[in-house]
């Protein structure tokens, strides 16, 4: 666009926008002046369009000035060094793993450079060591598929499409959490590119403080370029999706409440309770993801669920790859996730579903678009998860402060029409607030907020407890003295945004 100075001076908004865009262009130009030249993509290229289009939620598909797609840790290091030095230190950049965060700006940036790790997506297996080395651009489906050849697996995403990188940095709830703790508890080594461009290994013997901080501390320290995970022998399981009429709701809540307390006795089981409304069919239904991580059908721990009359079932003996290809949620929608954790209390569960039903009624009368889904998910968060974390050296989540079995609620709404953004955000945030208020009124609240499901108006890092907040702060400061990952990389949950 060309402006004569007189015209430009009249439209200050446009002028400042142009000036800003020019400065991010300097950052892209700096990358082009290095050996990374062929990896820089601009808006008119196929690589750029594919990268932006592959963010799971449509509302996070921002348009950076350029996308950089490095192929190796060395290239990530060169990118970081270049962006830290370029344009007087004013370059802003984002780090993208699988791009599954639902709020805009977590792993993408409108005016800056997005480092998209998608090309670094392979998994290799060292049979002798029992270690899978997973690159940060991988999706869990490809990890499971590779490892299935060896009849081993790793605890990871329960949907094959989810990205590895952010998932492991935020904790990671898996079908195996009752057996082995969170996914992050099973990482034995991280390869990390620091703000000064050095590439280090963080494990129990080397940079052990950073090793621990990465288990829940998210993108506050550097860019992880490889995760070495301890494998689980055997990837066969009994699992699938079972659907039910929503008239059976109370039976599921009673079964779920009891199941959470029973997990102590059987560490192979897992359950995700999904209350789902689909506008396209106008159906309000319930679906359970029931998984038993050894190949045994109908284990007794599921008896109270299998006693409930179902409308369909895909329960089968299969492997983790096959199962996680089935459990997907459509991409290409606008999405909001918002979450909270509660004491395992039946009244809070009932309230969860009451509010869910009421929000559906509110949406029905008010949407501009006619294609949307409203999910409310209930997931166990029992104390035994944390017992495993402690056995393995601990993480940042701070769950060891609690000695009760908990459950977690994820409110997950998806819609097509941008004109409904305000409505669904209001409904999701309002539903959560009402539920949290209710839980407080009966003393069944819990302050933990799971980072991987948190909305940008939530503060998951604070919910780790003040001791862990200070620990993360000190490790971020130690490994990134100039605060590159706080200021030049603004996306994600940042420790500098947490109050002292
Ligand atoms: C369909 C679906 C299913 C899900 N299933 C589960 C589940 O079963 N269990 C569960 O616990 N969670 C689940 N989640 C939540 C999931 O854990 C988070 O969305 C997580 O952030 C995904 O990681 P990502 O790499 O795709 O995200 P991204 O959006 O790419 O990254 C998340 C954050 O991490 C930072 N980051 C990414 N890569 C790196 C890196 N290499 N180094 C440093 N920082 C980095 C980003 O900058 C960003 O701030 C699911 C989400 C969806 C949408
Ligand atoms: C089932 O769905 C209907 C329609 O949304 C709702 O009015 C009703 O309360 C639901 N029933 C239960 C038991 O949740
Ligand atoms: C689903 O219902 C069928 C038919 O009643 C029953 O045989 C089956 O065991 C049920 N499956 C589950 C997982 O509950
Ligand atoms: C999973 O297994 C079923 C049954 O064998 C098969 O029909 C389906 O195609 C498999 N899915 C994948 C992704 O392999
Ligand atoms: C929750 O409680 C707060 C504090 O009492 C109150 O301001 C807010 O309106 C309540 N929100 C809802 C949705 O009930």
From TrEMBL:
Annotated TM spans? none
FAD-binding PCMH-type domain location is 60-234
Report the Pfam families cross-referenced here.
Answer: FAD_binding_4 (PF01565)
Q: Which PROSITE patterns match?
A: FAD_PCMH
User: What start and end residues bound the annotated signal peptide?
Assistant: 1-21
Q: Which UniProt keywords apply?
A: FAD, Flavoprotein, Oxidoreductase, Signal
Q: Name the family the entry cites.
A: Belongs to the oxygen-dependent FAD-linked oxidoreductase family.
Q: What name does this protein carry?
A: FAD-binding PCMH-type domain-containing protein
Organism of origin: Penicillium coprophilum
Please spell out the taxonomic lineage of the organism that makes this protein: Eukaryota, Fungi, Dikarya, Ascomycota, Pezizomycotina
